[in-house]
Specification:
With 299 residues, the chain is of the alpha/beta class. The chain has three domains: 82 residues, Arc Repressor Mutant, subunit A, CATH 1.10.10.10; 99 residues, 3-Layer(aba) Sandwich (D-Maltodextrin-Binding Protein, domain 2); 99 residues, D-Maltodextrin-Binding Protein, domain 2 (3-Layer(aba) Sandwich), CATH 3.40.190. Helix content is 41%, strand content 20%. A hairpin with a 4-residue loop joins strand 1 and strand 2. Helix 1 crosses helix 4. It is elongated, with a radius of gyration of 29 Å. The N and C termini lie far apart (70 Å).
Length: 299
């Protein structure tokens, strides 16, 4: 009958302590206390009926049994790590599901997906427009593009691009009875608001404008609707630069003033560390970083 293997935690404690010849450094590596390492090693020695370390006054040395045992234990952990990595990076079947804010998906991501298809026709994408945080544990989403500060505990977050805000409007508002020429001219126009993103009060203060109520005007819960309203000439929108970029380039929107304000947020590509190496995720990340970086350089 095969002998029961020692507990995995005890073997990990031994392998780390033997590599470092230090319980303290092993504890730091494994994020436990020195006492826990000492306890695990002692339990392993008792289980094996062999002394693995010689504990000196200010040093730790392997016994002959410890020296003989270490190479095999280290090799076993290396094989486990390799097998786990191969399993997690194996190409998962089905399309790559990308969760993104609806406004970002519609105004920036989707218009550029043709270029990804050209270089990786073997990877099918499923775009999930959602304001909710992706539930990676459920397995319904592979990667997520989020707008925030980049702090996503337990996840890998790759910075894509920064964001700034500035007024945009239809070219038709540059002419007429009250043409937009100076920030003070906003007193004659409707202000369009993006709920949660953009602050007319802050922009007007930075521009030195007085006598304009920063709270007046319609509020949109989705940035795409805000952009559409501005394109239709319904007022002046305080827009996020990334989302308005294509309409500005096409001339469907214009910037009546040059002043822009940076935000504390940026766009990030987020996914679990464990699946970040999957080929289709790595390919999408590389393309997306190149796409965002190229536009940032051009801007």
């Amino acid at each position: 009958m095969a002998r029961r293997l020692p507990p995995l935690n005890a073997l990990r404690a031994f392998e780390a302590a033997a590599r470092h010849l230090s319980f303290t450094r092993a504890a730091e590596e494994l994020h436990v206390t020195q006492a826990a390492i000492s306890h695990q090693v002692k339990a392993l020695e008792e289980d094996l009926g062999r002394k693995l370390f010689r504990r000196l006054n200010r040093a730790l040395r392997l016994t002959d049994d410890g020296q003989a045992y270490l190479p095999s234990v280290s090799k076993a952990f290396a094989l486990l790590n390799e097998a786990t990595s191969d399993l997690l990076t194996k190409q998962a079947p089905g399309p790559l599901t990308v969760s993104a804010l609806p406004s970002f998906a519609a105004r920036w991501l989707v218009p550029r997906l043709g270029r990804f298809r050209q270089i990786r026709p073997d990877i099918d994408l499923r775009i999930d427009p959602s304001v909710a945080l992706a539930d990676f544990a459920a397995g319904d989403v592979d990667v997520s593009i989020r707008y925030g500060r980049g702090k996503y505990p337990g996840l890998r977050a790759d910075w894509l691009m920064a964001e700034d805000i500035f007024p945009v409007c239809s070219p038709t508002l540059l002419t007429g009875a009250h043409p937009l020429r100076e920030p003070d001219d906003l007193a004659h126009h409707v202000l369009l608001h993006d709920e949660g993103h953009g602050d007319w009060r802050t922009w007007l203060l930075a521009a030195g404008v007085e006598g304009v109520d920063p709270a007046r005007g319609p509020i949109f819960t989705d940035s795409s609707m805000l952009i559409l309203a501005a394109m239709a000439g319904q007022g002046v929108a305080l827009a996020r630069g990334v989302l308005a970029a294509d309409e500005l380039a096409a001339g469907r929107l214009v910037r009546p003033f040059t002043l822009s304000l940076p935000t504390e947020y940026a766009y990030y590509l987020v996914c679990p560390e464990a699946t970040a190496g999957q080929p289709k995720i790595a390919a999408f990340r590389a393309w997306l970083l190149d796409e965002a970086g190229g536009e940032a350089s051009a801007g």
